[in-house]
Write a structure and sequence with these properties.
about 375 residues; alpha/beta; TIM Barrel; 8-stranded parallel beta sheet; two-stranded antiparallel ribbon; 17 helices; about 45% helix
């Protein structure tokens, strides 16, 4: 077993152990992948101010997100097909998050169902909702999340239509995998992954199969999903969903200040500055660069989170210093899951927390709640000088 010291080590091991179509699914963006790349690279433009001769004993990364106590300001993002990265992947990731003390967010497009995850965890998790045309399914899945005692609904607003991701099209991405000669040859080299998948019954979209009439095989499932994302989703629908849900609501996919103000007006508890990991509108601003203007626009009227490009505890610290109340990691925990299962997710969280703790200390702080933009050197024009 190689020595794992950073998230990149987990990514390299993940690449070796998981079939190419699922690695590419996680490690890709839409079109030219400009936004996918800049989500990460733009963090490198922010520099820390190092402080010395400060009492650094009794440090803490503990804080809250939407009123929930968390071990650090990090949640596991909703990632579709997580159960294809590793057998029973959503269950394993949820367990790791629960033990560590951070929120886990289950995707609508998960392999393990809401009920599966609830049966294998002890504490409430968050559920991410894609709005579907089928109103019966939409109401039923919200009620299923209520029955599972999910403590927050994360409503994704930036996937009314699907962005084009070239690698997914070329790989013929599907769940279960499409058995082309190329995919079979590649999967045959991933023995650990294959044995895990042979040992589980969970290989379809668990939140859909068995819950929609006429969905009984891969072809009917994918046709239903392709037809179901609702291009008519609007702010009136957000209000209806909020009323139907009745609990904590987080709006994910905010990039524009006017949309951020609408999010405040909707009565949501938090918004997530997000460009869907660079997987929707290529050429959109990175999340860390979009964050400051949105924070200025909404002030303290709504809790502001962000995702996109978080690969280290230093990235977490920079986002928090810029004003985010919390961040979401998707790819970083997926690397750990595909590399080492539940232990890999725990390892990813341990790495990020250690980097966060040490970097916070080097910047002269003992408590993550006291961190401000003063610890950063932000280049002029970072938010952009647009016409």
């Amino acid at each position: 077993m190689p020595v794992i010291t950073c998230i990149e080590d987990l990514r390299a091991l993940y690449e070796r152990r998981v079939p190419r179509m699922f690695y590419d699914y996680a490690e890709t963006g839409s079109w030219t992948e400009q936004t996918f790349r800049e989500n990460s690279s733009d963090f490198n433009k922010l520099y820390f101010r190092q402080k010395v001769a400060v009492d650094l004993s009794e440090r803490s990364t503990r804080t809250t997100m939407i009123g929930q106590d968390v071990a650090m300001p990090v949640a596991l993002a909703p990632v579709g097909l997580t159960g294809m990265q590793c057998a029973d992947g959503e269950i394993k990731a949820a367990r790791a998050a629960e033990k560590f003390g951070v929120p886990f967010t289950l995707s609508t497009m998960s392999i393990c169902s809401i009920e599966d995850v609830a049966a294998h965890t002890e504490k409430p998790f968050w559920f991410q909702l894609y709005v579907m045309r089928d109103q019966g399914f939409l109401e039923a899945i919200i009620n299923r999340a209520k029955a599972a005692k999910c403590s927050a609904l994360v409503l994704t607003l930036d996937l009314q239509i699907l962005g084009q991701r070239h690698k997914d099209l070329k790989n013929g991405l599907s769940a279960p995998p499409r058995l082309t000669p190329r995919n079979i040859a590649n999967m045959a080299t991933k023995v650990r992954w294959g044995l895990g998948m042979l040992g589980t019954r969970r290989r379809q979209f668990g939140n859909i199969v068995g819950h929609v009439k006429g969905i009984d095989d891969a072809s009917s499932l994918f046709q239903w999903v392709a037809d179901q994302f609702d291009p008519k989703l609007n702010w009136n629908d957000v209000e209806k969903i909020k009323n139907l849900w009745g609990g904590k609501l987080i709006l994910k996919g905010i990039q524009d200040v006017d949309d951020a103000r609408r999010a405040v007006d909707s009565g949501a508890d938090a918004l997530v500055v997000s460009n869907h990991g660079g997987r929707q509108l290529d050429g959109a601003l990175s999340s860390i660069r979009a964050l400051p203007n949105i924070l200025d626009a909404v002030g303290d009227r709504i809790e502001v989170h962000m995702d996109g490009g978080i690969r280290s505890g230093q990235d977490v610290l920079k986002a928090v210093a810029m004003g985010a109340k919390g961040v979401y990691i998707g790819r970083a925990f997926t690397y750990g899951l595909g590399a080492m299962g539940e232990k890999g997710v725990s390892k990813a969280l341990e790495i990020i927390q250690r980097e966060l703790d040490l970097s916070m200390a080097f910047c002269g702080h003992r408590d993550i709640n006291d961190v401000s933009r003063d610890i950063l050197m932000v280049p002029k024009g970072f938010r952009g000088d647009w016409e």
